[in-house]
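User: structure tokens for this one?
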Amino acid sequence: MTQEDREFFAYFRSVFKRYNITPSKATRLEYDFVTRVAESEFYLQKAKT
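Assistant:
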């Protein structure tokens, strides 16, 4: 697992926390939402640096 992978997973978990969603209890819609938000924000943030 690369450093970028670890950073993404940490960010992914933070998005779950931000929206108060428990990963193990998330519906498919909630999980997809968090995945899309995390991907778009994480890679946008990476592009800026």
